[in-house]
Amino acid sequence: MNYSQAEEYLHSFIDYEKIPGISYASYGYSLKHVEELLHRMGDPHLAAKTVHVAGTKGKGSIAAMIVQVLIVSGYRTGLYTSPHFHTLRERIRVGSNLISEEEFAALMTEVKPYFEAMNHDPLYRQLTFFEVLTALAFAYFKQKQADFQVLEVGLGGRLDATNVAEPEVCAYKPNLAFYEALGIEGLIILEKTIKYMPADIPIIGDAKRGDIGNTAKAYAKALFSTLGFDAATVNPYLGFDSIEPFISYQDKGVFILCRTSNRGASDFQDLSCTGGLSLYEIVAQKVKEWNIYGNIGLVVGATYPEELKRVRS
């Protein structure tokens, strides 16, 4: 088939991007059929190391930046994003090059029999537009012998087709505020989210707690014992007694806010203190003193490289 025919064939699959308010639950949905499809194709999704980018904002920008870092580091890198602006081929690229019309058509012709076989197998659900395109992207990255594949989630959630890959993730960091805003239901969702995360990947509770006495102890217990986070972000500005309950969990990580990247951070963090040091530098010094168990880290915004140098010194 030529490119137009390949594109037309792809659009013959149901496209949930164009169906608002779709509920996975109402369809008894899972990713078993996608996993089976890829297994029949030779597991192309496992051929390269994976960076999986998810979230509510900035996914495309972050994915593009990661790709550039990997390219500069000498790695052949594939990028899979959605949606597209002008051409479907924008979603699949290696390096700075989009998949060509000829490559798209040839690859679709090659893998079409797998799609047809899956859709005629009564044991599995019908494939969707996004699942077919995701499988095509994996096959292309394998064909191009990519070292890394950077994947941006589509509709997101635990049933996004990109979840079949095995990402090289350093940590997950759920922001508790977005769950707490939903009340009891949000906390239930948070617990489910934590349970879904791989057991061998650290989970950081982005809580930014800062309080004293029994209140700090309660926060520490909630984060580390009740919810089971491996680490948490905390606020140091009430002093050591607000930090001590957290660091007393010697097998847990504590990341202390030092020089943050929000717009108003300089109102206090840049204030000059004794000895000509800024407040954030004083925080860094104190953290070094407090780190008796070796379980404390610092939060320093990546948008402030010069400040980061001073903190490290």
TrEMBL record:
Family: Belongs to the OMP decarboxylase family. Type 2 subfamily.
EC number, UniProt record: 4.1.1.23
GO molecular function, one term: tetrahydrofolylpolyglutamate synthase activity
Originating organism: marine sediment metagenome
Segments forming a coiled coil: none
Record bears the keyword Ligase: yes
Database matches in SMART domains: OMPdecase
Pathway membership: Pyrimidine metabolism; UMP biosynthesis via de novo pathway; UMP from orotate: step 2/2
Protein name as annotated: Orotidine 5'-phosphate decarboxylase
Residue span(s) of domain Orotidine 5'-phosphate decarboxylase: 150-311
Record's catalysed reaction(s): orotidine 5'-phosphate + H(+) = UMP + CO2
Biological processes, Gene Ontology terms: 'de novo' pyrimidine nucleobase biosynthetic process; 'de novo' UMP biosynthetic process
Keywords, comma-separated and alphabetical: ATP-binding, Decarboxylase, Ligase, Lyase, Nucleotide-binding, Pyrimidine biosynthesis
